C-alpha cells in the first residue's frame, strides 16, 4: 500500500481532508446544527470514503498487475486476491 | 438537531469514534499498511457514517412527528421536508 | 401500500420499467455482451431499485403522518415503525 | 463477457432469479401489499444486483489478467480499463 510516492501523497491528502470533514461534523453536532445540513456533511464524508476506497483499490490493481507474474501460479494468486477484494468492497 | 440530551450524547459519541477511525486510517496509510486491512478500515468508517446518518434522521423524525402539528398546513410541511430528506439520503 | 391511485400508478410504472431493464440485461448476457455496458445496465437497475425504495418509503410516510394520530400511543407507534424502516433501508 | 460456459451459466441463473424477484414485486405492488415487506423485496433485489455486478467484474478480471499480456502497452491498457471500471462501480 505505499506504492509510488505520488499515489501515497494523493491518498494521504484524501484522508486528511476526511479528518477535516469529521472535525467540522463534530463541531456542527456540538453546536446543535440543523438536521438537513448535518445530513449533507455526513453524505459528503461517505462520498469521500468511497473515493478513497476506489483510489486504494486502483493503486493495488496497478501494483499487482503492472509487472508480469513470474509463474502461472503467481498470476492466479494475484487474481484470486483481487477478485476477493472486489467481492468484499463492491457495495 | 440538538433534541434530547441523550440523543445528542449518542451522536457525539458516534462522531468521536469516527474521528478515531480516520486518525487510525491516516496512520495506517502513512505507515504503508497493506491494501486489504486498509480497505477494511475504510469500509468500517463508511459503515459508521451510514449509522450516524440513520441516527440523525431517526432523531429528526421523532422531533418532527413526536408532537401533533397545530394545523394541517404545518403537518404537510413537516411531511414534505421529511420525504425530501428520505429521497436525498436513501442511497 | 396502495395509498392514492396516483401513487400506485407511479410505483407500478417504476416496477414495470425495472422488469424491462432485467429482461434487456438477460438478453445482453445471453448474447455475450461486453463487460462495460453490462455493468452500466446493472448499475441503472440498481439505481431504479433505490428510486422505487424511496418512492415507497415517501408514500408510507405521507400515509402514516398525513392524518393526526388519535392518541399519543398511536403517534409513538407510528414513529417507532418509521424509524425502524429508516434504520433498515438507509444504506 | 461470455468467458467460460460455467461463468455464463452462473450469471444467467442470477439474472433469471432477479427477473423472478421483479415479477413478485410487481404482483405485491398490484395487490397493495404492506410497506415493510415490499421494502424488503426491493432491498433483496438491490442486493442481487450488487451480487451480479461483482460476479461480472470478477469474471472480467479473470479474463483480462488470466493470460499474460504480450506487451507492456497491452498490460497498461488492461489496467487502465479495469481501474476505470472499479472507479465507476465501487459505490
From TrEMBL, chains A, B, C, D:
Top-level taxon in the UniProt lineage: Bacteria
Pfam families, alphabetized: Trns_repr_metal
Similarity comment text for this entry: Belongs to the FrmR/RcnR family.
Protein name (database record): Formaldehyde-responsive transcriptional repressor FrmR
Amino acid at each position: 500500500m505505499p506504492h509510488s510516492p505520488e499515489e501515497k501523497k494523493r491518498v494521504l491528502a484524501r484522508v486528511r481532508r476526511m479528518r477535516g470533514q469529521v472535525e467540522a461534523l463534530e463541531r456542527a453536532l456540538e453546536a446543535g446544527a440543523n438536521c438537513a445540513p448535518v445530513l449533507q456533511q455526513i453524505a459528503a464524508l461517505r462520498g469521500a470514503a468511497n473515493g478513497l476506497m476506489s483510489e486504494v483499490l486502483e493503486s493495488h490493481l496497478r501494483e499487482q498487475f503492472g509487472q508480469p507474474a513470474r509463474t502461472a501460479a503467481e498470476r492466479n494468486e494475484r487474481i484470486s486476491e483481487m477478485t476477493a477484494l472486489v467481492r468484499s468492497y463492491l457495495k
